[in-house]
Amino acid sequence: MSIDLSDLHGRPVIIGGGAAGLMTALQLAPEPVVLLSKSPLGAEASSMWAQGGLAAPVGADDSPALHLADTLAAGAGLCDAAAASRIVHAAPAAVEHLAELGVAFDRRADGSWRLGLEAAHGRNRIVHATGDGTGREIMRALIAAVRQTPSITLLEGVEARRLLVEDNAVRGVLAASDRGALTIATNRVVIATGGIGGLFADSTNPGGCFGQGLALAAHAGARLSDIEFVQFHPTAFDGPSRPMPLLTEAIRGDGAILIDETGLRFMADQRGAELAPRDIVARAVWRHRAAGHRTFLDARQHPGADFAQRYPVISAFCKMAGIDPARDPIPIRPAVHYHMGGIAVDGFGRSTVQGLWACGEAARTGLHGANRLASNSLMEAIVCARWVAESIEGVSAGPRAMLRADTMPPASDPSAVRPILTQGLGVLRDRDGIARAIRSLYPLVRSHGAASDAALVGLMIAVAAIQREESRGGHFRTDFPHTALSAAPSSLTRAEALAAARDIVEANTFARSALS
């Protein structure tokens, strides 16, 4: 690392090299910023893998009001309507901005956007690039722009391990690199580290996305909100590869159906059928599999012979598995795909800790509620990056802080956490299963070992899940299968989650001793 770290003190620090982090850095230009990415840009970013595209009301038959209505319906009563309205109204301009940065979106012969349909959308409003390669194309353009922007100091292979906080205000970042520990004094930090899929055994996310940003925020004292809401994508490719390849919802938007090994279209009688909200489709697939069936995506009729042209990435990995989607049903199963909750933020991405912002999947803006509407996530990251940047620009660099010498935490390893969350916090949940997960995670958190940070995020999800005694969106309790008449966002700090978990552990210990 040839950079003089003393030159970086006082600059805003952005943690995360996905679409949210890259766009925030670009929006801050020409202000000098530091961008930390634990891997080479794009290597472990979920944005790179996004197939569906960006949802934006840009069609002649569409409007922000229609997009908002679909978003609120999918969110199952838990969206922040004002925040969602503000975001969807900004979506068309975000698409235009990406096009200006060089993203080659798919267009029709007349130059208009080629728009796709996905589940729970009432209009064709999904803007794609290279068919099913939207995320890759957006990341290509953003990475090129970042590397060409002199105000952005990019530190690849550098992992933030702790935020340094005093009096509920950020003072710096403690990070690890192949050349040892480094600290950057700053009063402005953005967490844009993506999701939590890597905490589960079956996920479409890169294995390196396991909630590190949430752990950073939790240790700093920030509130997390709605973290019990985990979205399982109903059509992950059912094979041995981990992470699991995704079969984008756009295929069902093109007319593909879900069948079992007998050819039965098992969702035909449900409202919306295969284009029902994701949580409904995921539960239907899960239950059909639990009844002893195999489940498949059947694209033989629609899109049929056009499949390879429409979805080249998916066609390629199907071919490697010996499957021709134009002739063969594709085996599928649900897998963790997206996290609706995250760091609680306001309309400018500000957390409950002074000087700490969050953007992208790591943030809970209120757009998604209990169940994200398909393709709203990339759009959210691009839109909100501008508002985060505007907020940061309004905060001056503070005087250089005298940073304390914190002990460097070990590198995180989520492998011990994956089987616990997979078993206890899957598509269908109940109190006994969630409580078992809490009792297993609690000692891992207290061990302060390699599993501790991942276990902390898992524990906070589990505590939020056990406290929500209803079923709503991506959180389904078989012991509380009905949706409550009213709902409020959940809210937890690290201290509150640990106290709740301790009570559950001690209650179980007392019950066991009483029986012995």
Automatic annotation (TrEMBL):
- GO molecular function annotation: L-aspartate oxidase activity
Q: Name one GO biological process term.
A: 'de novo' NAD+ biosynthetic process from L-aspartate
Where do the Fumarate reductase/succinate dehydrogenase flavoprotein-like C-terminal domain residues begin and end? 456-482
Q: What is its main location?
A: cytoplasm
Name the InterPro entries for this protein: FAD-dep_OxRdtase_2_FAD-bd, FAD/NAD-bd_sf, Fum_R/Succ_DH_flav-like_C_sf, Fum_Rdtase/Succ_DH_flav-like_C, NadB, Succ_DH/fumarate_Rdtase_cat_sf
| Any one GO cellular component localisation term in the record | cytoplasm
Q: Which residues form the FAD-dependent oxidoreductase 2 FAD-binding domain?
A: 13-378
Pathway membership:
Cofactor biosynthesis; NAD(+) biosynthesis; iminoaspartate from L-aspartate (oxidase route): step 1/1
Q: Which cofactor does it need?
A: FAD
Q: Where are the transmembrane segments?
A: none
The record ties this protein, via SUPFAM superfamilies, to: FAD/NAD(P)-binding domain, Succinate dehydrogenase/fumarate reductase flavoprotein C-terminal domain, Succinate dehydrogenase/fumarate reductase flavoprotein, catalytic domain
- From what superkingdom does this record's organism come? Bacteria
Q: Which UniProt keywords apply?
A: FAD, Flavoprotein, Oxidoreductase, Pyridine nucleotide biosynthesis
Q: What are the EC numbers?
A: 1.4.3.16
Q: Where in the cell is it found?
A: Cytoplasm
Coiled-coil region: none
Q: Could you tell me what reaction this enzyme catalyses?
A: L-aspartate + O2 = iminosuccinate + H2O2
What is the role of the protein in this entry?
Answer: Catalyzes the oxidation of L-aspartate to iminoaspartate.
Q: Family, per the entry?
A: Belongs to the FAD-dependent oxidoreductase 2 family. NadB subfamily.
Q: Indicate what this protein is called per its UniProt record.
A: L-aspartate oxidase
User: What is the species listed in this Swiss-Prot or TrEMBL entry?
Assistant: Bradyrhizobium macuxiense
